[in-house]
Amino acid sequence: MINILMIEDDPEFAELLTEYLAQFDIKITNFEDPYLGLSAGVKKYDLLILDLTLPGMDGLEVCEEVVRKYNMPVIISSARSDINDKVKSFELGAYDYLPKPYDPKEMYARIMSILNRINKGEGDKSSLPKSDFELKGDTIYFKKEALSLTPAEYEVLTLLIKHQGMTQSREQIINTSGTMSIDSQGKSLDVIISKIRTKLGDNKRIQAVRGVGYKLV
Fold this sequence. Notes:
Radius of gyration: 18 Å
Number of strands: 11
Helix content: 40-55%
Largest sheet: 5 strands, parallel
Number of helices: 8
CATH class of the largest domain: Alpha Beta
CATH topology of the largest domain: Rossmann fold
């Protein structure tokens, strides 16, 4: 059974999602109070589904604490659509951001995608080479050389660096960017990846994962 911690102050919404996921042997334990959720033995859960608008504590603060203390995968589930919230969530280490309202089927798909990626990557973590990338302020260094990047290139590469070795879906990458064109976001992402590869002088560092997205190796 997959055990999921949920911090969501809408009990009806939480109940709907809980009932749907139960058919897939996924158990959700929801807390409306973020302080209670954080004191509920976080380590025993596989993943956190987190609302951002919570009583007494902003969800971004909860995300930061859970990632820092427990290194647990977090899916943001929020009606807040501000791109700054999305960007900040990913910067804090959230794995995904799913805007409300959404179909529970989509949440199930994202949960399984994340847990499958983590399980597949566990055996490879120790063999990952020391990163050639370094983030300093608003500058990314590759092999100790500062890269000249556009804002969109910086956003995309930063996300890949922070999740090095793990596949990031096209949707995750696009949602992180506040500068990518909405109308042509698919093509824009491919162009940005191509330009980053050129600036790195290494086409193999960013790999395309067919039907999913990209990962930095």
